[in-house]
Fold:
Amino acid sequence: MFSPELIESLRQKLSLLSPSLVGLGFELMLAGVGLFLLLLDVLLPKKPVTFFWWVATGGLLAAGAVLAGAHFYFPVEETSYLLGKMLRITAETLYFKGLLGISALLTLWMLRGSAFFHRLDFPAGAFLFLFLSNVLGLSVLAMSAHWLSVYFSLELVSVSAYLLTAFHFEPRAGEGSIKYLLFGATASAVMLYGLSFLYGFTGTLEIFSPTFLQVPVSKHPVLGLVWVLALGGLLFKMAAFPFHIWAPDVYQSAPTPIVAFFSVAPKVVALWVLWQIASFLYEIEELRRLFSLFWAGVALLSIGLGNFAALWQTHLKRLMAYSSIAQTGFLLVVLVVPSPGGFSALLFYTTVYALMNFGLFWGIAKMASPEETLDCLAGKGREQVLAGGVLVLMAIALVGLPPTAGFTAKLLIFSGLWEAYQTWPHPALLVLFIFGLLNAAVFAFLLSQNSFLAFFQRKKHQRFAGKKYLILTCL
Amino acid sequence: MPENVLSCLIFLPLLGALVLLLWPRPVGAWAKWLTIGLTFGQMGLATGLYLYFEKGPEAPVGVYDLASYQFVEQASWFEISLGRSGRLSAEYLLGIDGLSVGLVLLATIVLFIGAVASYTIEKLPRGYFALYLVLSSAIVGCFVALDFLLFYLFFEFMLLPMYFLIGIWGGERREYAAVKFFIYTLVGSLLILVVMIGLYLSVIDPAKTARQAGLILHEAEASPEIIRKVQAALSAKKIAPENQVYTFRMTAMMDPDNFAPNALLGKSASGFALDFRFWAFWLLFIGFAIKLPMVPFHTWLPDAHVEAPTPVSVVLAGILLKIGGYGMMRLAFPIFPEQAQAGMLVMGFIGVLSILYGALNALAMDDLKKMVAHSSVSHMGFVLLGLAALNSEGAHGAIYQMWSHGILSALLFLLVGVLYDRTHSRLISHYRGLLGAMPYFGFFVMIGFFASLGLPGFSGFIGELFTLLGGFGSAGLPGWLVAGGVLGIVLGAAYFLWALQRMFLGKLWLREASWRDKIQDLHPREWLMLSLLSLLTLITGLMPGLVFGPMSRSVEAWIQWIWGT
Amino acid sequence: MGTSQISAFGWAFLFIVGGIVFVVLGLWVASLLRPARPNVEKLSAYECGEEAVGPAWGPFHNRYYRVALVFILFEVEIVLLFPWAVVFGQKPLLAATGGQWGQLALLEMFVFVGILALGLAWIWAKGHLDWVKSTVQSPDFESKVPRHLYEQVNERALSVQNKTAGGAAVSQSPSPTSYRQP
Structure:
């Protein structure tokens, strides 16, 4: 009835299970702590918010310890696969998971200082459970080696993110959340559609299966479109150009610590997955050219749209949303040329980016309350010197001015782009190179407005004069 | 002189800024004394530098040859692998030659004067003086850096302190002016960044590449033969890409043999749709022209100058503008000499345009500070004209004009500040017959105005004379164009003399009667600053050899380098 | 196996046909047995006590979604449990892997059901399953219209209904309105 091969493969899978469980220690811990939080919420509903916070933080720290242990368990040079070929672990994956864990810890730390978190009726157990689920999803996403695990983990991330957005419990929060849900559902449908095509072309969904390299795009022009569809879900999480529409509403309505997390962790992890896919596909010259252009286009449009739309914002977090769309564009520049040098640029940039964004949002959370409009920052820099200083410093770093690490990161990234242009002089790369660099000026204008407002009382008409002038410069 | 005097010049003020920032209690009056003391120390060091700088007919030239720079400090900063495409090395490389020694001295003098002028700052003293010290270290760093990345770092780092100094301590429309300054300069520096990335990925360091390729064990062993060998192998594409060590070193960028064969900015790069060397040169040029500032990129300057507090205006006009001219001399021209030759006419035209446009604007101004600001545009036009001439007189004149304008614009802005401190009005039409009420002030104003309009005996005359001589003697500039520059001098005389006549001559009249008690003559502190600057302009005007002496050899070498002889 | 004559889709098709037959047969038998006394109330579509026809943007209470979501969750769980039992309970596989195969599957399902149960418990504890009960409030309005007039109107409406009931004109009949005395 059953072939011996099948039985043999079952045996093999079972024997591989226990190392897989070790590799998934971080995720299992996260899931366990999340469920434990829910259980506590059922059994001890009267406990204060800080109690739940300590459980979540302690659990996250313990999971981090397990993650650090995984560093010793998995050899650095090798690639280990978990659960068949669903997930894989490399030294880099562990690094990104570590970055994720640190981001999560920073978010928890920011949460502790937020006023909304300490409201009496705040459902802390459920909130922290959702947050840990989000972290869990991202962590699985970072390891994914199979399109299905990419899809599932993205869904886990998305669903928890929709709910986390709504935790201000006010009509606008609901609006942001619903918009997020609708766009997210669309993006995931688009992605699934693309995946089904990919499966139809190749008969496999393993990301790193050589079959993907053997289907020539020139014979099947639709394949290019299919790839774009399949990558849609990841682009959605990164808030990159055609999938960015949700960002402003979500950023505006979600609690600030959560926004800080959204602006860092999903982007970094999705970028890592995209990087793996890109550097795998780039072995084929034809795909390399196609994708180089694709990423160059997406990066260019994200940078341009994000920065220019941000110019007109008066709400601080909406502004940050648009500027984070632009930041996504800068992150995506790395994908145009996945070379080993580019990878160190990626590691450097993502790490710096994470720290910069948390610093920035920490400053915003400290200073911009309660309305979170640009004008309410005015004069706050004098009252809260530390937060103001951090805000300004992080803004400078995000613009990429020396001597901050932000400058070094941008230097590395754009150097890679120039190199790519030297080997393959396509005008789109040159346009991206120059436009991307010059856009730092627009970005600087934006953030200089912020930091300015933080320090001086300002009058309305002057801002408009500045804007007009700026647009002239850009033209 | 000690070995690392240039580092001391840079880091002394930075140390002071750190002390100020980390001081646990509110800072007292000692903050201003610390700043004055540190900038004075800087000035002393720079004077020593000037005195010990090897001058004379046998002096080492610098410019394109790292070995003949003086006071060189060299240390590896970082070297990272870019994988298959090579390695990237940046150095902490400082040194001065004839082109920069005078400007370093000028910078420290003006910074000292600015610090003394800052004595009256009461608002947020800790922030002000810390930023001022950071600014002064960045400015000096800019003049002594020989590594492009290091230069760029200092160049950008000037931006932020300046932004805050204008934005917090400035006048009525300070926010607008600060943002405008910030954006303009940032755009300029981004253009430079574009070229910098392109350049360093095209240029290799032969010594380090030899080490990487295994020809020698340590880069210090690189002899000229080894270097030639590496360069030959490079152009024959015999060096593996992963062994190529890209460098930011300016002198390496000037040597066409160091360009990788497939580099877009290399000499042999052809077959591309765009002429990259052409664009790179003009991007650099525009980047520095914004700083200089040249018409049509000058509009940030009047705003920034007018809104900045007096000491910041002094520093801004006295030194920051010079970095634009210095950058052209140090980077744009010698790295792309053939483009500089081709662009002489255009650059000369822009220079003359700035001279005339700035002068005409100055003529129309009723605000004394705006008039001085526009006259800066006009005077810096002479610098560009001198550079565009691409001959010895012109280049000498350009550097001299930078020196002279640094002193004179500092003097003029201080004078405006003196008046503004007393009455809070800078409008020319609000005063008449001031000479009687403030005779010493009037005396210094006359020195400043006459020196600026080019009266022989003062430094302004020498600068304008030599740049115009260079212009007329230049093969690439037509006579009528340079004659336009001469017209600029006439216009300069017109606006300065007209302002003098309107404000100082005749019977005393003031817009508000209450000002009568306010317009006392100069304080001792103002005496100190004004007389120091006046003396300097007079001495260097009478003995231009003091400025010309150290730079001659380098300037000659620079000209020869550009013409390839 | 004896199924060689039927393709894979054939099996699915049989299920589809069987399902349709099962439903239609049941309805037909029921129509034979039940008394047929329709009225407009009975003939309207059943919608949980809500008004079946209304404007497109009519509000719909949130708690329907909550209960429906929980319901679907557990229904899907049941649907999953059945094939799980069939697939993982196969003796040869259990024997070949020394029982590990089954133990693993059992453990996984316990975890799965446990998580769902915890979720249910949480929803329950947080009161999301509570149906808000309306309390009846009798209005203290005294009508000036005498009671028998209302009853007359009611009777007339009832007689109209009875005349039209059972005929083809049911759908055109005026909406039955029962006038009650407040």
User: Anything to note?
Assistant: Chain A has a mean pLDDT of 82. DSSP finds 19 helices and two strands in chain A. The CA atoms of residues 8 and 221 of chain A lie 41 Å apart. Residues 171-202 of chain A form the longest helix (32 residues).
